[in-house]
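FAQ: What does the model actually see?

It sees only this:
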Amino acid sequence: MLGLLKNPIVVTAEINMNLVALTAIGLISRLWGLSYPRAVVFDEVYYGQFVSLYMKRIFFVDDSGPPFGHMLLALGGYLGGFDGNFLWNRIGAEYSMNVPVWSLRLLPALAGALCVPLAYQILVELQFSHCAALGAALLILLENSLITQSRFMLLESILIFFILLAVLSYLKFYNLQRHSSFSGSWWFWLLLTGVACSCAVGVKYMGLFTYMLLLSIAGLHFWHMIGDQNLSNVSLMCHFLARGLALIVIPAAMYLSFFYVHLTLLYRSGPHDQIMTSAFQASLEGGLARITQGQPLEVAYGSQITLRNVLGKPMQCWLHSHTNTYPIRYENGRGSSHQQQVTCYPFKDVNNWWIVKDPGMQQLVVSNPPRPVRHGHIVQLVHGITTRYLNTHDVAAPLSPHSQEVSCYIDYNISMPAQNLWRVEIVNRESDADVWKTILSEVRFVHLNTSAVLKASGFLGASLPEWGYRQLEVVGEKLAKGYHQSMVWNVEEHRYGKSQEQKEREVELHSPTQMDISKNLSFMAKFTELQWKILTLKNEDTEHKYSSSALDWITMDTNIAYWFHPTSGAQIHLLGNVVTWASANIAALVYLCLSLWYLIRRRRKIYDIPEDAWQLWVSAGGICVGGWAVNYLPFFLMEKTLFLYHYLPALTFQILLIPIVLQHLGNHLCRSLLLKSMFSALIVAWFSSVYLVYRTFSPVTYGEPSLSVTELKDLRWKDSWNILIQKQ
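And it is asked to produce this:
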């Protein structure tokens, strides 16, 4: 033991000074003056609202994607002590002193800074020279658009960071595959690949494109492993299970965990939960939970209920009636039954209350003990205030002539008998004996005489005219196939009726009930509903001043003015480095042309480059060209408002391709020493121009110093750019 003390304990470590220097410079470029401007910059007005809701624990739904990115932004606010009290209503609004601007912008800036060393390491793992890797990192460092996007409370830099981390992790894992399978480092990089992919998808669904690319590459590599006769069947199965665990199971589990944390944090009711089902709303603190707490669970004959349409978009609405009747004749000349109007009303109202009546009995109160309504039972629905019965018949609906009119029956003593029997069908039943439950049961009402289904058709068309108070149309759908949500209803408010006299019943309908029955949803039920809302909820896409098409991005024919100072004229724009963007396009074109040339020549058994160089060329293209394609081409299929920043993930992959193409040209096409010298000189001159353009556009990248009108006009290199010029 004492012998060990004779010699000093020595720890050695290898430090890549290139990585250290690139990380330091990246941090400086993204963190310098991060609190400037102390005003709301472009989409900070959008993401800031969600940060405030996180701070106040108020539930929200964002149809742009999963919650992980929002939670990271909220983490910055939490670390800075933000209380959520700021009105995010205007771009350019000055932040109050309680808003920790530096902290809110910190995580996107750190993510943007770390993309610089990640780019370096990716090229090293692709087996390219350190010089090429350094060039890739510097191009990312000096790309004005990436700098701008990473210095504010936005998500693109975080998305790009996780995308690059996933690519790097997979490359490290693949390179370890050859000589140290199932080692600790092998497992680390494989698992980190899955984690990074999950985080990328959790930030924005755009991350799914790179995830699919890496899964395809991993599948191709495994396919090649199957042909390796040196691997036993057991070994292949272990490799397959390891990849399945790390690249599918763990990402799926992490994705669920993002929603679990999201739903755990946001337990209070707010304006966004109006689009959720009644069961979801009732699970939140406040709001509907205060109304529905303690309601009877089982709907019985005599129950007083409100019926909410499950579809809930473009607005929530409840089955409603009032004393007004349908006009005898509509404007188009068609006639009506002149019965009492039935509509779907988007506000809570006493006229939304209905009584569930047993057709074989006259009483409108709940018996003791209550007789529950089950799936398949026949009921009548009596309007609580007017005591008229819900009815439909073979008369065309006012706005949907191919559907039946729904009304509350008035006996005019003519040959139009009442048809007011409805069969209750519980859509989400577990068995045919299920009881109709408050909030939890989703039901259809099938008309016994005509088999028409009660449907809120106003969601699909216009609202009723003035005679219907612009409320939504309700019809009997005669050819009802499947369970469209507009045909499905759930009981939201519920009480057991006790008053047989109408005057007493009207008083009862205005008073709340208090009974103690819990209706908590499971996490998976809430996750499924929230995920479906995110995927299907569509905000109205409107033309934005700075929206653009995907074709505009390649040549950067568009820009976005992020911020403008009203007095000094200082401004921030999302504008890229023109030389880098043009070079990236040329590099992609050269890569595709050279690849096609090599393929044709190889088909003729002519090998222009060594086999290892060819494999390197193909693998690099699979990552860089593939990454550009999967992150760019899908936008041509998307029906949404697009902006220049959507191109940044694709651009990042394209930038990585530039030094790959340059090294390939220098190694294999510049044969003589003179050509190599000239090529090196051209690269130096080209890179100097990249730096010069970066410096030229820095004032509109960082927002300072403010420029004169003449200087701003000089920056308008393209007529399509919208550089803001202050009027003198």
